[in-house]
Specification:
Length: 496
């Protein structure tokens, strides 16, 4: 029996490949960043061919790094940045346009239009989603309407639509398989999460021909195998999940009520809500967590567009730090922000505010404000946004969330994690393996091939690195007031 699983983690800023052993431990990692394309304000694109070439090269590299050969790999799990939309020509395999990234806001005005037509409830009831340019449907519509000849070709069945998982599998299988899984489909705004089918009425609304769409599969099954010489052996592809759902699974939030928050470029909090797709009354999304065999699990999700990216902004645009990790020591030089708040609404505000036009805002500046206050306010903004989502989730679920499992790059920051625990008054639990996104997809693949026999077998692999507990006696009333004032200011620019 082969002893390893390879996870391909295609993220917003980099393509990664990680090899895990049977104990769920990391054997090797390879990573490549790729180009972010900003054609105009609010637009974000990726070159699908660069996504493919970086992903393929890290897959080959990680096998060598681990000292293995392709035949040692039992199967591949794929996890990906979600919503990002690729449309390609079935015959030539060439994308007809760059991938339009989840952060891209070009379809905001159209989204406002369909909201004004009163479609919000219908769309949320069917898809679990809140109308926003974040999701794939309006991005696909934009490509079909703005790329010359695309609409006609699509109608003639010559084009294929896919989220990044579909695109990678199409490439990995040598144009054999055009598939996706339920988790990715549930981010498109054209997939009915109750009937588990593409929704004809919504396809009509967005002008997307059904013939373009991938076949929707479960998250854990053998979809196909790598073609020819792509990886020096034919390896089954056996797991797919959008990266946030994959992290929920990798965190082993397999019981109803368990919650994780991933602190990466954005922050994404998901709660397992079991087998019924409860629609949020508090501006959260309902999404599919995974489907294993015939069992569908749903999740409530709060998506925050700018999380760790506010630290990148301090580094790249403000020049206050030279590497992300330096934000902690800079912020630690002051005891508090002295009343300064940053609302990093650089791409509007996601959950629970859903304001496409809000702008990033700094409030509370005084003559004495220095770099450290700004660094601290930037870090705290990640925690405050998380608090807003958690409160909405508690209201929806009617429970007190006493424990939050955390992962992602910014969880390395102890100052942030402690502040988060203080603010939420919940336990913030960081596991030993923070690469849970990749691990989740590896588990899904390994469960399909029999590499692992059951969820019970893998549950014990999840281990705590550190638990952050709120300091006793902290009163958050004043600082939360200040945050709410700052949020108002960020929204005010949209009202004008
Ligand atoms: N020590 C740190 N403190 C705060 N943020 C950090 C730290 N280290 C990394 N980050 C942030 O974490 C993000 C990267 O996390 P990662 O999980 O790799 O994200 P993604 O998968 O979205 O690319 C970056 O936005 C970076 O600024
Ligand atoms: O690539 P990440 O980790 O920033 O995740 C992006 C999310 O999937 C967007 O919904």
């Amino acid at each position: 029996m082969s002893k390893y699983i390879m996870s391909l983690d295609q993220g917003t800023t980099s393509s990664r490949a990680i090899i895990f052993n049977h104990n769920g431990e990391i054997v090797a990692v390879a990573q490549k960043e790729f180009t972010q394309i900003y054609p105009q304000a609010g637009w974000v694109e990726h070159d699908p061919l660069e996504i493919w070439s970086t992903q393929l090269s890290v897959a080959a590299e990680v096998i060598v790094k681990a000292g293995l050969s392709a035949t040692d790999i039992d199967s591949i799990g794929i996890t990906n940045q979600r919503e990002t939309t690729v449309i390609w020509d079935r015959e030539t395999g060439q994308p007809v346009y760059n991938a339009i990234v989840w952060q891209d806001r070009r379809t905001s005005a159209y989204c406002d239009e369909i909201k004004a037509q009163g479609l919000a409830k219908k769309i949320q009831d069917k898809t679990g989603l809140i109308i926003d340019s974040y999701f794939s449907a309006t991005k696909a519509k934009w490509i079909l309407e703005n790329v010359k000849g695309a609409k006609e070709k699509a109608e003639a069945g010559k084009l294929a639509f896919g989220t990044i998982d579909s695109w990678l599998i199409w490439k990995l299988t040598g144009a054999e398989k055009h598939v996706t899984d339920v988790t990715n489909a549930s981010r498109t705004m054209i997939y009915n999460i109750h009937t588990l089918a593409w929704d004809d009425e919504l396809l009509d609304l967005f002008g997307i021909p059904k013939s373009m769409l991938p076949e929707v599969k479960s998250s854990s099954e053998i979809y196909g195998e790598t073609a020819g010489k792509i990886l020096a052996a034919k390896i089954p592809i056996a797991g797919i999940a959008g990266d946030q759902q994959s992290a929920l699974f990798g965190q082993m939030c397999t019981e109803v009520g368990m919650v994780k928050n991933t602190y990466g470029t954005g922050c994404f909090m998901l709660m397992n809500i079991g087998n019924e797709p409860k629609i949020s009354a508090n501006n959260l999304l309902t999404t599919i967590a995974w489907k294993i065999k015939d069992q569908v699990h749903y999740a409530l999700e709060g998506s925050i567009f700018i999380g760790g990216a506010v630290v990148q902004w301090l580094r790249d645009e403000m020049g206050l730090i030279s590497k992300s990790a330096d934000v902690e020591s800079l912020a630690q030089k002051v005891k508090n922000t002295d009343g300064v708040y940053i609302v990093p609404a650089f791409a509007g505000l996601g959950a629970p505010h859903w304001n496409q036009h809000a702008r990033g805002t700094i409030t509370g500046l005084t003559r004495g404000t220095n770099k450290s206050h700004i660094a601290r306010a930037a870090l705290e903004s990640i925690a405050y946004q998380t608090m807003d989502v958690l409160k909405a989730m508690e209201a929806d679920a009617g429970v007190n969330i006493a424990e939050l499992r955390v992962d992602g790059g910014a969880t390395a920051n102890d100052l942030l994690m402690q502040f988060q625990a203080d603010l939420l008054k919940s336990k913030v639990i960081r596991p030993e393996i923070t690469e849970v996104t990749a691990l989740g997809a590896a588990y899904l693949a390994g469960l399909a091939t029999g590499f692992w026999n059951s969820i019970d077998e893998i549950r014990s692999q999840w281990k705590i690195d550190k638990t952050f507990i709120a300091e006793e006696g902290i009163d958050n009333t004043e600082r939360i007031k200040g945050w709410n004032r700052a949020i108002k200011a960020a929204k005010a620019s949209a009202e004008d």
